[in-house]
Amino acid sequence: MTGFAYIRGVTTIELDPLLCNGCMMCIKVCPHPVFEALKRAVAIREPNLCIECGACALNCPEGALNVNPGVGCAAAILKGWVTRSKPDCSC
Ligand code: SF4
Ligand code: SF4
């Protein structure tokens, strides 16, 4: 989704850089360019692009990422926004 931006300053995405091992899994699974690859770690480059799907946190082997609600499914998050209901992935 080129040009997509979440409401500025409200996303809950957090990264603990001390836990990050640099595997880059979060970059692979994130549907938006939220993260930036560093030499041996990642950084959150653009948090306002995060839709709080939780795919990164659920796939991080070190537990370095935290996001709420983070159900692990972008479609569920978007459906929750449209229907104004709690996100739920039933795939
Ligand atoms: S998935 Fe976790 S450990 Fe891997 S690069 Fe991302 S934050 Fe670091
Ligand atoms: S919660 Fe989803 S959109 Fe946000 S950084 Fe993680 S994978 Fe990307």
Automatic annotation (TrEMBL):
InterPro entries: 4Fe4S_Fe-S-bd, 4Fe4S_Fe_S_CS, Fe-S_Ferredoxin
SUPFAM superfamilies hit by this protein: 4Fe-4S ferredoxins
Coiled coil: none
Keywords assigned by UniProt, alphabetized: 4Fe-4S, Iron, Iron-sulfur, Metal-binding
Molecular functions (GO terms): 4 iron, 4 sulfur cluster binding; metal ion binding
Gene3D superfamilies assigned to the protein according to its UniProt record, in alphabetical order: 3.30.70.20
Domain 4Fe-4S ferredoxin-type intervals: 11-36, 40-70
Name of protein: 4Fe-4S binding protein
Organism, as annotated: Candidatus Sulfomarinibacter kjeldsenii
Taxonomic path: Bacteria, Pseudomonadati, Acidobacteriota, Thermoanaerobaculia, Thermoanaerobaculales
